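ingest -> fold -> write
write: protein_1
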Amino acid sequence: MKSMRFLTALAAALISAGLARAETVTLDLVGPISDYKIYVSEKLDKLVEDTKAFTGAVKAGDVARAKALFAPTRQSYEAIEPIAELFSDLDSAIDSRADDHEKAEADPSFTGFHRIEFGLWTKNSTDGLNSFADKLLNDVTELRKRIVDLPLPPEKVVGGAAALMEEVAATKISGEEDRYSHTDLWDFRGNFDGAYKIVELVRPLIAQKEEDFLKGVDDNFNRINATLSKYKEGEGYVSYEKLSEADRKVLAAAVNKLAEDLSTLRAKLGLD
């Protein structure tokens, strides 16, 4: 009986200690999460503003202007994609690819940025895109509305750094996302900036204990940034098709290593 009471007391103490630690971790993250919420709100405001201009060009039949606005408009979405994905219905409507639909490009459920991209680049036309433009603007406006008062889960925010890089490593590095326009480097920049923002916000919480980890993360961020910078053109980037095979390999290696390292970030902050 004494041993049973001892084990029960020990379990209670461990649970209590665990809860206290979890509470401390959560309190430590209040500031970073609040700052990230401001970042997300700013990106959403810009997304809505830029989408108005983009869809306005589509509805005006201005193919050249719509093409020019496509990639920079998407960047804000790409930077906060893990948060947007909290609403799967809107994420699918805004950012799904033809492969996600039974009839591919011909499927009526294929909407959003990539459906408009398909029309602009494959057909070099805005014919039939008005309804898709209206829906896209409505969807990004609804996304902003839903997120405004949404408490951001700390584990989702911190895990978002890895999620952004993992998606690049798993699918985007092949060029499959912006397959019609080849504006993938703009997306990479958005993903890169979004992941870097999260790391910067939580850096003070792990800096003293994780110097080697942060050095490795920074080295890979710098490697990716240097590769992207090589392909800058004006305010944006060249076509993804212009990347050399060597640079694609460097980019892939850095993104994969960065995704692997960032996948441990939640555990380092006591969120697993």
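write: protein_2
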Amino acid sequence: MLIFALKFFRAFFMINHNGDLIADDFVLATNRSFLYGDGVFETLKIVDSKILFFESHYFRLMSSMRIMRMKIPMHFTMEFLEQQILQLAQENATASSARVRITVYRNDGGYYTPTDATVSYVIQTTPLDTKAYIHATSSFEVELYKDFYVGKQLLSTLKTTSKTIQVLAAVYAQENGYASCLLLNESKNVVEGISGNLFMKLDNKLITPPLSEGCLNGIMRNQVIRLAKNMEGLEVVEEPISPFDLQKADELFLTNVIQGIQSITNYRKKAFETILAASLVEQLNLDIQSN
């Protein structure tokens, strides 16, 4: 009965596969994203039939495809992808508030060496309970994940379909009772969270690792930097963060487009403030409403 129920639930939502709306229940065994992680993706948020920060998402996707040496279709304009996403959201009755994932992958053929440079895409939408960003006040304890390290390289800044370190860190957090983990790079500096960029407030400085450290080129990261630079008495800098810095911090938080800003409340024996994060969430919502 449970298997039947899960299949029924999965079939309720449609996906957009190369412009065709089909049931969300297919797996292609020859898909290069499945076989080799040969794909990139964007996670977006829809509120009231509007895709938040869509221009930033679009240009990051185009940049990622170029770096991955994918052939970008001529029709992959910002207007085309926006229309495809919103059409699917309407079909799934998720246009009010939704999480969207668009995955672009190189088409079938070859082993490590592809025989086809063209791409396909899949768009998925799932409903979200809230429209506005909410600053969560519940406990959120993190720990360092030290089994594997993020490379200080351009590929680490992309949202590729190969996220093994993030998956293993999430399993580690789950097994050890943490809300999430912080990832380290090969220089043993703290890079980011499992699913978000890291910010640290220390005195009057807001610090986040630079992209050269290997952190994701996050859309919400850039929004937070922009908003924080307009706050009086706060200096925003991009510089490496060591594990020793974490316990000196006044405040730590993670950012991504779906959750917005997630305060870290505890790391080891240190408890953190959440004042700046709460203020930034308020500013973020006001900024979205005014645009």
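write: annotation protein_2
The chain has a mean pLDDT of 93.
Residues 145 and 183 are 6 Å apart (CA to CA).
pipeline exit 0
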